[in-house]
Amino acid sequence: MPCWHVVLTVFIREYALQLLAFTPAEIDLSTAFHAHHIPSLVLLSILIAILAAFASFNHVELIRKQERRKSSMVWLALGAVAMGSGVWAMHFIGMLSYSLPVPVTYHSGITLLSVLPAIMAGFVTLQVMSMGDFTWRRVLLGGVLMGAGIGVMHYLGMAAMVLPADRLYRPGLFLASIVVAVLLATLALGVRPLLQNFLRQRLALNLASSVLMGLAIASMHYVAMHATVFMPLQNGYNAYQGHVLDSQALVTIAVAAAVFIVLISMVVVAMRYRLLGAEQEQQAAIAEAKLIEARFYSIAERVPGVVYEFTLSPQGQMSIPYISEAVKDVYGVSAAQVIADAELLMACVHPKNVNNVLEAMNQSASTLEPWQIEFRIVRHGSEQVRWVLGNATPTREADGAVTWSGVIADITEQKRHEQTVHHLAFYDALTELPNRRMTLSLLMDHMQQAERSGQFGAVLFIDLDNFKRLNDTQGHSTGDELLRQVGQRLLRLAPKSSVVGRQSSDEFVLVLGQQGASSDAAHKSTGMHAERILHALSQPYDLHGNDYACALSIGACVFQQQSFDAAELLKRADIAMHVAKRSGGNKWRIFDPAMQAQLQRRYEIEQAMPTALACDEFELYFQPKVMQPKVIQPKVMQPEGAAQVIYGAEALIRWRHPDFGMVSPADFIPLAESNGFIVPLGTWVLRTACQTLQQWQQDEHLKGLQLAVNVSPRQFYQPDFVHRVEQLLQKFPEAAQQLTIELTESLVLEDIEEAIRRMAALRQLGVRLSLDDFGTGFSSLSYLSQMAFDEVKIDQHFVRAMSSSESGRELIIIEAIVQLADKLDMDVIAEGVESDAERVALLSKGCFAFQGYYFSKPLPKQDFVSFVATHSGT
Fold it and tell me: Where does the record place the EAL domain (predicted)?
């Protein structure tokens, strides 16, 4: 018969009826055995109970982390054994701490059997705790089962006691022990969710729960012990005495159980911490992965473009595992649609770019080099065309597929900006024509084409004459309108293969190709084009309702072989244009090397002027002014050699260069006017003239002679011009009454009010004022009355024309000028007199003062002194 069956039979027959014997009311408890507890063993028993609870609670985490049920049940069973063994060991050590006056042994079978309820109680406890979802109903059920199991274990263990005494239980304390076990077990189970709000560390939480559970187990035991009464027996022992365990054996078993618990606890704690570390690492990895994923998605959604992952299988099938929602804004389809059908993206590629995209993709798949290409797409559901930039890095998968990860950026605005920047960089904003930079590039292309084809080409440099005057008088808006119309007219006139560009403010360029295979043919064809364009562009323009006839100058240059660059070619055409302009304007000229030589000389002259002034290379020449005394009958012809008086001279500047020789004023004066050198040069002329007048006052023949000096508009309108004249007259005081400043009509008309103010200031200094070239301006009579001139000079144009005119109009004008000046109390002098007939004719009209080659050419200073000395007696 099996051992367990024998034990069970004996237990039922011998002890079942005595297991829960209670004390009757009439019993005399004074005869009962008195016992006491050994404190050290009591404390040890409580520690073992706490240790058992701690081991079992650590199993909870291991049970929860098991994904497979078998593994979970294994850890649940181990935890139950650890807890049950610990409760059992605590009970029997507590029993050993209970010292009775009689010998006590323990029935071995019942002692071992008593561990089963404890293990079952541990199993129930761990099962409740490992479920995770704490509810008070479940906690209460677990507490009841736990308390019941502990109670059964305790009272079954009490039944194993073999001693000469009856074992009776006080009903009140017996019930109290059960209640205490259930309440404290329920509290130990229910306190965990409450403590979780205060104890974040699992170790601290398990320790607190273990202490409560250990106290629950110990409290039940010691309350139950106080409920037990041992009454002496008269005859023998109270139970079967075979197979008993003495105290030493029981201690050994209890200690072994405690060691087992400690070992289990250490293993469990070690595994628990290892599991906790792995769990923390896993949680950290998961959290980091989620963070990275969240960041990726966040970045992907904020990236100015479509973030995507694209896979091409070895069979050529396309798939898109991921694509950001930005695809909706760019392609017009949602991310879900694209993931479901990758062909939607290829369907949006512009037909003209499909082959390029596929070739770039196949190339990238073959070499695993980054895929980068700009292409156009047609937005899904519309005809809107957008530019995108595809940029991705490929990787080859194990199955041979290639996966690209990258971004598709919408660069439509960038392309638009690039076009705008390109247009601003290479095209004129006003006329929409190519600017200088673009024109040079296109001209270089034409030059290369001409060299390859053997055909001559030509470039025409077109400049509008008097454009500044239009801007100044009619405003810049009118000038801009003229430039736009000129550009449009040029485009209509230009052949299809030509280039029309705007160089600067009022300069345009026309590049012509196919002008002939020979130089003569090219020059002839270019001249025909220039003549046709000159005629067409000279036709009136409608500027804000007003007709405007535009004069222009055209310079051309033919080319074939590339012996110089485009800039040099334009320069040569520009030179030819300036030659046309100096020829009177509204003309065209074709470049020849002599023009460049002339320009080079002009440049050398311009560069040499400052040095010439510093080295005293300039000098004054003097042309005499002659006066013939008035006669009673002015219209009577005066004989040649009649009394004439030299009353003054005009100072004329000359330049004697050590290399160039005598440089004509016609060469350097216009250059000085254009570059501003006329101001220091004019100052030198005034100072030299005043110094000369001061010297003349010491010569008997020269004393009292007037000296006229020409002043340019740029010099006259210098802010300190009057002050400079005043300083010179202070330095040379004797020159004040003999100095005459000659002003032209164009100078006065430039700023009439300012001119009047400055003239008045000069007259206060004693300076005489002469109006040069009178009659050639636009409003002579309207302003003459406002100006305080001392002298009027009849322009040589009228003097030369009066002898060849059949109508005699010039004489009439001269007579009118003389009479007008006489009425205004002004002296009159005619310049450019070259014959006696002109002198006599002028005398007949009342003009008695002359200047010209008939009397003398301009003379150097010493020659002029001699000339005056010779004619002083005439």
Answer: 602-872
Which structure tokens are listed for 584?
């009177």
Strand order in the sheet with 105-107: 161-162, 105-107, 244-245
Closest C-alpha among 296, 300, 380, 385 to residue 334:
380
Final residue of a structural domain among 394, 417, 440: 417
**In this predicted model, what pLDDT tens digit does every residue of 278-302 receive, in sequence order?**
766 777 777 776 777 666 666 656 6
Q: What is the pLDDT of residues 316-352, one digit of tens each?
A: 888 888 888 777 878 888 888 888 888 888 888 888 8
Q: Which of 591, 617, 646 is the last residue of a domain?
A: 591
If asked whether residues 507 and 436 sit together in one domain, one would say yes
Is residue 288 a part of any domain in this protein? no
650 with 625: CB under 8 angstroms?
A: yes
Residue 275 lies in a domain: no
Residues 538 and 677 in one domain: no
Lowest average pLDDT, out of 679-683, 697-701, 775-779, goes to 775-779
Count of Cβ atoms closer than 10 Å to residue 384 Cβ: 11
Closest C-alpha to 41, from 85, 99, 100, 93: 93
Q: How would you label 828-853 residue by residue, b for 16+ Cβ within 10 Å and e otherwise? A: bbbbbbeeeebbebbbbbbbbbbbbe
Is residue 125 included in any domain, yes or no?
yes
Q: Taking the CB of residue 626, how many other CB atoms lie within 10 A of it?
A: 23
For residues 467 and 404, membership in a common domain is answered with no
Please check whether residue 835 lies inside any domain of the structure.
yes
Range of the domain at 494: 427-591
CB 56 within 8 A of CB 82: yes
